Amino acid sequence: MDAFKSLVIIMLSAVFVDNYVLTRFLGICPFLGVSKKLDSAVGMGVAVTFVMVMATAVTWPIQTYILGEKLGYLQTIVFILIIAALVQFTEIVLKKFIPALHKSLGVYLPLITTNCAVLGVAINNINESNFNFLQSIINSIGVGLGFLLAMVIFSGLRSKIQESEIPESFKGLPATLIAASFVSLAFFGFGGIIENLFK
Amino acid sequence: MKNNSNLSIILKGILLENPVFVLILGTCPTLATTKTVIGAVGMGIAATAVLICSNIVISLLRKVIPDSVRIPCYIVVIASFVTIVEMVIHAYVPIIYDLLGVYLPLITVNCIILGRAEMFANKNNIAKSALDGLGMGLGFCVALILMATVREVIGVGSFAGISIPFLENYTVKFFQEAPGGFLVYGVLIALVFKITHGKAPYKKEFSCDSCPSAAFCNKAHCQEAKEEI
Q1: What's the gap in Å between the CA of B148 and the closest CA on chain A?
Q2: Choosing a second label site near A161 at 20 to 30 A (CA), which of A132, A155, A195, B197?
Q3: How many domains, chain B?
Q4: Greatest mean pLDDT range, A71-80, A83-92, A101-110, B37-46
Q5: Interface predicted TM-score (ipTM) of this complex, two decimals
Q6: Test the B interface: residue of A116, A119, A161, A187 with most B CBs within 10 Å
């Protein structure tokens, strides 16, 4: 039961408290770039979650069983190559076997190679948190869902901004960033909830 | 005349084509490492070193690398230099290594570096690419330090760890936290737009022109985005 509880805590804190986009600033580019419309925001969020889980499932065993301590310095190069190859591979497989899913997720997949949230979560699982395999997968799912949640909330806010009157200098990106600041402030409210949830 | 153009390559990176405020590249490290001035300086120097080295190597190899696999090649070159810089920082300035943490290996996916490889280094000779790397790196440093100064002075009441009298008693914690980062960044972009009004190729939104990912997504997504507008 304790193991299950710790997994739930990892999951919830990845989604709400430690939200990668809003508190750690990872994956800002897609967050600002692809959040104009709700359906594209959802598509990007799902694609990122998918690649994150896949990347973790591959990079964790490689780091633990192949690189280890001795070849640890190769981590960055190996991880980014794995992610790039994985994204290509996923695209080919989806195109061949699930064309419907490829049609909706396909355009977002190549953009994910340079998404720092994917590399960030793969590195953090090992270097910062020392998670085991199951915990890493759960954490990746949580981070992906947190990204999706932030994208969905933010796309709603952005459609409101487009209708409002903004000073000339603030039009476009500055207004978007200030809106992101408010969403981030809202997520601040989750801090401290998780620790007290299971007392 | 020749010196003039070389100088202008460096200078344009600092204001008119500032990677952070005008080209809007590398947003993640900009927001994440500007809590303190020391972190910002460390990040700026590390990224500049990687940028200059990778620009030189990519410019050297621009005729060797086949066009269809150039992005993976660039990523390998960049990741190698990031690993070198990471090891150097770990060995000589462990304070900055701890301060930057995961953002140090994440320089690999910093869009400034891939973007300059794609936009500049694979079209120009070695000297020009090196100068471009230097200019862009300086622009990145200036932007980071500017943001970190605002956030540290108001948020903690100190500058690069040295506390400022009066201000240290009246701090606004908001600027140290994540929302403050977004706010300061937004306001600074608006300010730079006001200053360079009409001179800089200002971007209203993210577009494909400077997006380093555009090369391998075949602009599929951007066409969709254009239709939306």
Answers
A1: 15
A2: B197
A3: 1
A4: B37-46
A5: 0.82
A6: A116
